[in-house]
Design brief:
With 579 residues, the protein is α/β, with parallel strands linked by helices. Helices cover 55% and strands 12% of the residues. It is built from 23 helices and twelve strands. The strands form three sheets. It has a four-stranded mixed beta sheet. Strands 5-6-8-7 form a four-stranded mixed beta sheet. The longest helix has 38 residues. The chain is elongated.
């Protein structure tokens, strides 16, 4: 303790300080300690004693300033705007030692299993001065040794107290595991079963997973990554709310709205999402999406996968993977060219890098892409959409335009050939189905309609001397594709039985929008194929402007697609950085 320094303090100030000391002790004994005792009893579910002797803590200290500092450090906290401002500037706590311990005790006791262990080991808490700070057990008493004359550096802060209960009782970890087993797994299991309309086992042993952490101190952060949301935006919102709340409290207190500092703040845990939004929810939502867009997807996935096993790759390196197996430990099943895995009742292995935080978790899109690689879920959905909607509608409209029954054939073997990767296949399907195939079949129908209807003297003269092959002989439309990115779209006729013709529209889908004809290009190619002249109103300056507008439209679409791809990549990158 510091040497007496009474002579340096005027008598009047000395009396005021002694009066303040007396007031602080009285408030602590009559208000704070009973309140803390009640909160301890509620948290523990049984009586827990608080042994707090101010005579012991102050000992032989005679300097009134230091005596008041000891009382504030232990029982009342920093008072006044100036004191709190100084503490915040030093990044020190403004709460007293006992309040900090009570809050840590309450947080640790939120889980019933942890609470049971704590109340067996802690029947009383005693505060004692010493030459260093420590937390030790003496029988069933928790002995809190501190140096209150040093102020906040001489007591335990929130993190140190939280770490103590974690080391002794695995308090946070056990609470998170319990929340996960209560809120995360059962709900996910039910949603998966509902999506697949069949039983599926979700195997996720979080305790065993945490045992694989490369460092002991990574256990709680890893558990938080798995169980609840840990994104920076959420943390920032909580931090900003805390700063604003502290500022408002200081203002209210300065205005005279006194509030007992021993009153606990609302627990943020109650507002957290424990459904595993970083791991389980993206997984479940991906399965729900893939099963909902096409019935054959649901059947194929349900037949191939009967179990999902989630494990962890230890360490912070991003080396996770998702794989299919017939059984756990058997060889990895490679994606099938047919889009149907050669397994029944197999296992999906989800290997996450959860020690790396949310960056080591797979997103919903990651899981959708995984399922797409094995089952071609989106591809099948778009093929079904095209064949059940735009293709029959094309047949109906061409039958009306040409006055005879027309059948449209789509040669999927050439359009979605085996050398295409998943991204290319999806891009082609998107181009084919966008806007009910307005860029492919829609253009074809409109162009044929325009060629049939538009007639001037020159066209009538040609038709008078030769057959209109399009109107008289075409009974079939064939949509096909040429492989590679160097191909160009084209039109030609194929002979059928009975002197009939098939109009074959060959696209270069791998080139995107540049691999298909627009309305003006299609009309031009079709007239040349049929030997028909261009109408007078499409020649000259007007025709030039139409062609220029068509080229500009394609260029604009290419630029727009490139911009969207860049935006998506940037979004994913920043999403990872903010996690």
């Amino acid at each position: 303790m510091a040497a007496p320094n009474d002579a340096a303090i005027p008598i009047k100030n000395m009396e005021a300080m002694k009066a303040k000391e007396s007031e602080l002790i009285q408030n602590a004994e009559n208000i704070h300690i009973p309140n803390w005792k009640a909160r301890l009893d509620i948290a523990a579910g049984r009586a827990v004693e608080i042994l707090l002797s101010f005579d012991k803590l102050m000992g032989t200290e005679s300097d009134p300033k230091i005596r008041i500092k000891i009382l504030q450090t232990m029982a009342t906290g920093a008072r006044g705007v100036l004191s709190q401002g100084v503490a915040m500037a030093k990044m020190e706590t403004t709460l007293p030692a006992v309040e900090l311990l009570i809050r840590a005790f309450e947080a640790a006791c939120l889980d019933s299993g942890v609470r049971s262990d704590i109340v067996q080991k802690i029947h009383a808490i005693e505060f004692f001065p010493g030459k260093s700070k420590s937390l030790t057990f003496v029988g069933q008493t928790l002995l809190y040794t501190c140096q209150p004359e040093l102020g906040p550096p001489g007591i335990f802060n929130k993190k140190e107290l939280t770490d103590f209960f974690e080391i002794q009782f695995y308090a946070q970890e056990r609470a998170l595991v319990a929340k996960f087993n209560t809120h995360g797994l059962p709900g996910a299991q039910a949603r998966l079963k509902n999506a697949l309309s069949s039983d599926i086992q979700l195997e996720f042993d979080l305790v065993s997973l945490l045992d694989q952490c490369s460092l002991h101190e990574n256990r709680v952060p890893t558990a938080r990554t798995v169980v609840t949301r840990t994104k920076l935006t959420d943390k920032a919102a909580i931090a900003i709310g805390g700063v604003v709340g502290a500022a408002q409290a200081m203002i209210e207190k300065n205005r005279g709205a006194h509030q007992d500092q021993s009153t606990p703040t609302p627990k943020q845990e109650e507002n957290l999402d424990f459904s595993s939004p970083n791991v389980i929810i993206p997984l479940v939502e991906a399965f729900e999406y893939c099963c909902s867009i096409e019935e054959q997807n649901r059947k194929a996935i349900a037949e191939a996968i009967s179990k999902i096993v989630v494990v962890m790759v230890p360490g912070a390196k991003l080396t996770g993977s998702m794989t299919l197996h017939q059984n756990v430990g058997t060889a990895v099943i490679s994606p099938s060219q047919r889009g149907v895995p050669p397994i029944k009742d197999g296992v999906m292995m989800y290997k996450g890098c959860f020690e790396a935080g949310v960056k080591g978790c797979f997103t919903k899109n990651d899981v959708i892409d995984f399922l797409e690689g094995h089952f071609r879920c989106r591809e099948k959905a778009m093929v079904t959409k095209l064949m059940s909607g735009p293709v029959p509608l094309t047949n109906e409209r061409l039958t009306q335009i040409l006055g005879k029954n027309i059948v449209t054939e789509v040669t999927w073997g050439s359009i979605l050939h085996a050398s295409l990767d998943m991204t290319q296949r999806l891009e082609i399907c998107n181009l084919l189905t966008e806007g009910d195939s307005k860029l492919v079949l829609g253009v074809l129908v409109s162009a044929i309609d325009d060629v049939i209807l538009k007639k001037d003297d020159e066209i009538l003269a040609v038709e008078a001397t030769s057959d209109n092959m399009l109107k008289e002989r075409v009974t079939r439309i064939v949509l096909t594709a040429t492989p590679g990115k160097q191909g160009k779209p084209s039109l030609h006729f194929n002979k059928l039985d009975d002197d009939k013709l098939a109009l074959v529209y060959t696209c270069a889908f791998e080139r995107g929008i540049r691999g298909v004809f627009d309305f003006y290009e299609f009309k031009h190619e079709l007239r040349e194929l049929c030997g028909l002249p261009t109408p007078a109103n499409e020649k000259g300056v007007k025709g030039v402007f139409q062609k220029a507008g068509s080229s500009a439209s394609k260029l604009s679409r290419d630029v727009g697609n490139a911009s969207r791809d860049v935006a998506k990549k940037m979004g994913r990158m920043f999403g990872k950085l903010l996690s």
